[in-house]
Fold this protein.
Amino acid sequence: MVRISFLSGLLTVLLLAPHALMAEHWASEAIPFNKSAGCMEGPLAEFGQYIGNWKIDDEELQDDGVTWKAGAGARWDFVCLGNGTAIQDFWMPNDGGVGTNLRTYNKESESWDIAWSVTGMSGFAHIQARQEEDGNIVMMYKSPLPNPPRRITFFAAEENAWKWKLEMSFDDGETWTEVYRIRATRI
């Protein structure tokens, strides 16, 4: 019995020790992926303000064009990569599936290049975003172009909450109809 216990303990140490060392290595100050200060200054602060973990309450416009119906909700986590290299988020709806955005700031165009992918999507969508004078960030799909056209607006974050909306245009961009909206609350 003692021999089995010893072997079991030895096996546990041999299997877990490398993982513990890797975790310690990744958490060290020498690795730039554990820092987020670079995403909180300059243009990166535009999306940096959303870094954290968020509970999502959502609503969808119904076919009557008037009634809003509560959705299943989600969790949305934003992280800084490489102390300002990029901002990545992880979309996790309560009713299944997952999605992720990788956001990089393009200094030349003074806009964001975003790659979006979600469960069931073939490849990724290229989205471009720009912060407007009112502080809101407006995102437009570049490729593939959805039909009908869509735009997404992130509203400026409050201390522990922010709002977001998806709009569609049924007249080639002349007018926009809000079809989906969320309210995020910090977890």
User: Anything to note?
Assistant: Helices lie at 2-27, 45-48. Residues 1-23 have pLDDT under 50 and may be disordered. The chain has two domains: 1-30, 32-186.
